[in-house]
Amino acid sequence: MLALPIRAAFLQLFQQDFLQKQGDIRFLRALTLEASRGRIVDRNGQLLASSSPVKSLWANPEIMQPLGISQLRNLAELLDVSPEALNRKLIASGREFVYLKRRLDPRTAQDILDMRIPGIFAETEFMRFYPSGESTAHVIGLSGSEGKGQEGIELSQDGQLTGRNGSRQVLKDLRGQIIADASRAIPPTHGKTVELALDARIQYQAHKAISSAVQAHKARSGSVIVLDAKNGELLAAANYPAFNPNNRQSAAPEDMRNRGIVDAFEAGSVMKPFAMALALEDGHATLHTMLDTRSYKIGPATVRDVAPRASLDMLGIMQKSSNVGTSKLALMSTPERFWRFYNDLGFGRKPGTGFPGESSGTLRDWKTWRQIDQATMSFGYGVSGSLLQLARAFTVFANGGLLLPVSLYPQTMEAPSRRVVSERTAALMRDLLVANSQAGGGAAAARVPGYSMGGKPGTARKLVDGRYVADKHRASFIGFAPGKSPRIIVAVTVDEPSAGQYYGGAVAAPIFSRVAGDALRLLNIQPDAPGQPILPPMPQDIPADI
């Protein structure tokens, strides 16, 4: 009798901490209260990505009774695994906690819980859903199974979207059932909503247009960029092939890349307006300057036009897409001045959008140039950029000579801009590009019913093993609308069309027409050229054979 109180006193005085700790290990559990990842919405509040609560099932094999054959078979069928694999997981785990399946749909999870198998429990987690599916997949990106951003906006805005988990300490009995709270719960802090400048309506139409065009022309891929010409906001960035972010198991890594932002390429004749603008800006030429546009040599290389003419003025050089005329205008500038102008347009530098993997393109140091390098750069060879960079460079023509930054998010104040050319030069170039959509111009197939527009097609031969080949092309078109007061800039590129046509004026220009028309109507921009006829294309933008 004396030994019992002595033993009790010993345990209370000298073993209390140890015994308390052992009790906590057996019965005290810290539960994570998972925070919901923030939503992503477009400029109109349309939901593009959200997290919804789902059930994850786990088991404690230590307290589970052996399952009967029919019970094991039914459970395996609901979990979409073989009975043998399920049995191995339960028997061989040697743990008190093993996931049966995470993020099950609510109906399946409830069917399993209704089986009332001792030792099987459910916890609430969050699963990411993308209501727009393929159309916005390349912009929104992906988050992983642990709720961390992996691609696109999900990655670049992971800090804003990721919340902070809460916690709750509870007491559980031997069967794992919660019998009491052990401390005050710390609630989770959910992630913030991220609003994009993207217009989901325009994005959807752009995605449809580029998807159908790539398939119709049997092309390798295609991309469309739509910018607000007034503030540089990204209204759409569509690519094809695409992938379904809600079912990514079958998606190839190649299809998950936002090609319009991360891929750089030689664009061909869409670069010609920049060389023409520099000549006008520096006073080397006027609209009435006549240039000899017959073939000529620079060292061993010959610069030629596909449809040569003896001479052309600036409008003729634009409409006939003259390599000879453009190169001669470019060579009126010193290499340093020419390089600085292209650099001011954003080539060779990242656009600064913050999008993961955005391309800077290539613009080599002018000190390494030969004369032929400067000549070919004027019509799109030897310099590369992403479709986004090309679209951004056209803001100079659409916005009075100012280069605008591109923003993925709505702008609440006037965007900071940098003057590249004067308002007069920008207005002259805008008029030339609008004239290029008239009879005799290469942009005729890009015309939008009811609206004026301006733009330039381009067709570039692709570089394969150090040589430009004749059977692989990239067709592009960049333009703006309405032509008199641009509100949008649309850039299109189609890689390796192989169904017969490959010129920018025939392949990419009609995509511009469709996307620009949809965007103008969705933005409620009033037509400025009612009754405007659609003219047949004039595909004279074939690259020089150099």
Automatic annotation (TrEMBL):
<keyword id="KW-0378">Hydrolase</keyword>
<feature type="domain" description="Penicillin-binding protein transpeptidase">
    <location>
        <begin position="222"/>
        <end position="515"/>
    </location>
</feature>
<protein>
    <submittedName>
        <fullName>Penicillin-binding protein 2</fullName>
    </submittedName>
</protein>
<dbReference type="InterPro" id="IPR005311">
    <property type="entry name" value="PBP_dimer"/>
</dbReference>
<dbReference type="InterPro" id="IPR001460">
    <property type="entry name" value="PCN-bd_Tpept"/>
</dbReference>
<keyword id="KW-0645">Protease</keyword>
<dbReference type="InterPro" id="IPR012338">
    <property type="entry name" value="Beta-lactam/transpept-like"/>
</dbReference>
<dbReference type="Pfam" id="PF00905">
    <property type="entry name" value="Transpeptidase"/>
</dbReference>
<feature type="domain" description="Penicillin-binding protein dimerisation">
    <location>
        <begin position="33"/>
        <end position="180"/>
    </location>
</feature>
<keyword id="KW-0121">Carboxypeptidase</keyword>
<dbReference type="InterPro" id="IPR036138">
    <property type="entry name" value="PBP_dimer_sf"/>
</dbReference>
<dbReference type="InterPro" id="IPR050515">
    <property type="entry name" value="Beta-lactam/transpept"/>
</dbReference>
<dbReference type="Pfam" id="PF03717">
    <property type="entry name" value="PBP_dimer"/>
</dbReference>
<keyword id="KW-0472">Membrane</keyword>
